[in-house]
Design goal:
The chain is mainly alpha-helical. It is 55% helix and 9% strand.
């Protein structure tokens, strides 16, 4: 199913990155996307508010770092969104009348 939360380009890239790691540090994500801290914070907040990403700040010695990880719901939303996009692309490749249901407005 199409997911507007995941679909935003930076959030899609965050989900894609987090889908292949257990967790990632804020600075790593920021650098990977090439965005400012404020942009990364905004997108992580949207994903966290949706329950798609868990953000933690473990306390310990030294500097406090922010970590992000996909939740089970986040992984499902990301995978479902990818399926939807792949089905949409397949429909487009088949042309008119070759629908798999991705273009049914869901």
């Amino acid at each position: 199913m199409f997911d507007e939360i995941v679909h935003a380009p930076n959030r899609l890239r965050i989900c894609a990155f987090l889908a292949v790691v257990r967790e990632a540090e804020f600075g790593t994500l920021r650098d990977e996307l090439g965005v400012a801290d404020s942009v990364m914070s905004k997108h992580l907040k949207v994903l966290a508010d949706a329950g798609y990403v868990k953000v933690t700040k473990p306390r310990g010695s030294g500097r406090v770092r922010t970590w992000a990880a996909l939740t089970r719901a986040g992984r499902k939303a990301y995978e479902d969104h990818l399926w939807y996009l792949q089905a949409l692309a397949a429909d487009a490749a088949r042309g008119p009348g070759g629908s798999t249901g991705a273009n049914s407005g869901g």
